[in-house]
Amino acid sequence: MSPADYRLVLAAIVGIALSIVLIIRGRLHPFVGLLCGAFTVGLLAGLPMEETAKAVEKGAGAILGGTGLVVALGLGLGAMLQLSDGAGGLARAALRLSGVRGAPWASLFTAIVIGLPLFFETGLVLLLPIVASAAAALPAGQNGDTAKLRLMLPALAGLSVVHALVPPHPGPLLAVNALGANLGLTLLYGLIIGIPTAIIAGPLLARFTAPGVKLNPPLLDPVKIDVVAPSVGRTLTAVLLPVVLIAAGQAVALLPPAIAAHFHWLSWISDPVVALLVAVLVALPLLFGRRITDRTIQNAIWTEAMTPAGGIILAIGAGGALKQVLVTAGLSDMLVRIAQGGAISPILLAWGVSVCIRLATGSATVATITTAGVMQGLVAASGVEPEWMVLAIGAGSLFFSHVNDPGFWLVKSYLGTDMPGTFRTWSIMETVVAIVGLLLVLVASSIF
């Protein structure tokens, strides 16, 4: 490494460290803290202020151009599932079918299904109170704090895995676009990697982390409105529709040309924005029936959806700005040189960078966006299939959630754990997801 490389690394460390201090100590919103970090990186790396400002605008604009729509539509679908109690009905049905012995597994797979089109925060709000009430209804002697955690932690594992590894979540979707990965293959590989990862980090790990952790009454309760809950079939249709549309569009490429010509329309309907818009339009009558024209319901859906949307969109936009400044300053080129020297596997390097940014910023989505941006050149130079790089980055973006992660406090509030208990359960679980995910990516990438 040259003196310029060391200067760039120092600039990146100082800029990200400043973001941490401003977010944690200064109590600033991640949007402001990350923007300050981006300008600091540019200044210390020797970029002219005008060039740094242009990089900030370019990075934020590129991220928000399409992702803002994905975020808004995803939150809208989540609000519908929450307000109609559709997701709650699906979860309760699964837990009834599973019985006491299979309840942790039902909790896990329900979270994976419900979490496919939803943001982590939305899925958390939907599922944890339902799972907690199901645990409280277990037979006497089997409904203590340990039993509740053994139902709730698998749900968290399922939500985390699909959030980080499976499109159309914004993080993996943006990484797919940045690295030129195939969306359908990434979705397929994400499920292949994600399901065993969630099993290990969920029901199996909870056997060791849940005992001895005490729970207080949860601080937060989900919002609901007075409507007739939809059937399980209708809810499943609304949940799975965007995933099916995206997968169908990718499957067209596998058909013989003569047949594929009749299904070319699937290529545009499988675009994540279009797929989510179709899912939202279909979900309205499925979940609310004839009451879709009720002004109160429409206002409740979009008020519930847009309340968190602003903060999420601003944070990922600032993450895109930080990413672009790092790329403009030359960090991407430096990582390519390091990887070409054979010192470290490109997949391991991508995971490690994602881990560092996750620990620094507290945001899995920001870690994914930033890492994918600086890894573009490395993917092209190394010849590694971009789908595996996307999954390695997504796995690293979950490593050890702690106090600078808003999800840490949200989980703490819904679980009812104290600080040590949250670290012992949630933070360890996220770390196991990150490590097991990496190991499975390394194994699978050598097989497929």
Unreliable stretches covering 5 or more consecutive residues: none
Structural class: mainly alpha
Roughly what is the average pLDDT, rounded to an integer? 83
- What sequence of helices (H) and strands (E) makes up the elements? HHHHHHHHHHHHHHHHHHHH
Number of strands: 0
User: What level of helicity do the residues show?
Assistant: over 70%
**Strand coverage percent:** under 5%
* Spatial shape: globular
Q: What number of domains?
A: 1
Rg over CA atoms: 22 Å
- Sheet of most strands: none
Q: Report how far the terminal alpha carbons are from each other.
A: 34 Å
| Total of DSSP H or I helical runs spanning 4+ residues | 20
Quick overview:
InterPro entries: Glcn_transporter. This protein has 448 residues and is mainly α. 79% of the residues lie in helices and 0% in strands.
